[in-house]
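Working notes for the structural subgroup meeting. M.R. asked for a predicted model of this chain before we commit to crystallization trials. I am recording the input and output together here so anyone reviewing the notebook later can reproduce the run.

Input as submitted:
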Amino acid sequence: MIRLLMFFLMLALPAKAEEIVLGLSRDQVAITATFEGSDILVFGAIRREAPIPDKSELGVIVTVAGPDEPVMVRRKDRRLGIWINTDAVEVDAAPSFYAVATNAPMRDVLRDVEDLRYRITIPRAIRSVGAQVSDSGAFTQALIRIRAGSGLYQVLEGAVDLEEETLFRTAITLPANLTEGDYEAHIFLTRNGRVIDEYITTIPVQKVGMERWLYNLAHENALIYGLMSLSIAIAAGWGASAAFTMLRR
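Returned structure, recorded in token form:
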């Protein structure tokens, strides 16, 4: 009886005027010894129950976020001619990778209050609540600058192609220095800067083959991994010595 009542209540709820239908070019990313990065194509369409509104423009925001991790950010100052670490801030949770792409400038497609609610932009996606220094925001900006320089944080304004306010697509480039784990792709639709629909999916990123076996061995059987590494080093040294001796003859 309860299930039947819940079914009729769901039928009574109003359907969304605009809803995301999403596709991905790949549903997982494999990290191998020759991995040099990868591109993920995010594409989809907007399903509607009513005509397209005339007085507002559609915004599409696509984010791809890697696993969160705590980060210690340190500041260096010059003291007596030597650069030393002074203040430090521990960021509680920062995405190991974060890319945000839009079909227009961010200020045109997202209001600040919506950003505060959904944590869409990079500064909002980073959580640092226990900082004990007065200018803790400078440490967050430093982290963003460093990771942006290595391709781990990306702001791609205008990178989402939107056709007839119905079809959209964009490409997100994943660098070679990825952290293993589940990556979350998040798509937002906005009207007048307000989020009207969202869609979330997960993209597993993991080592495969020999890389996975070595990773597991190093973390689960450190002694065996160490002995194997030592044996390989001894064998390589002996082989090089033998080859050099033969060349001298």
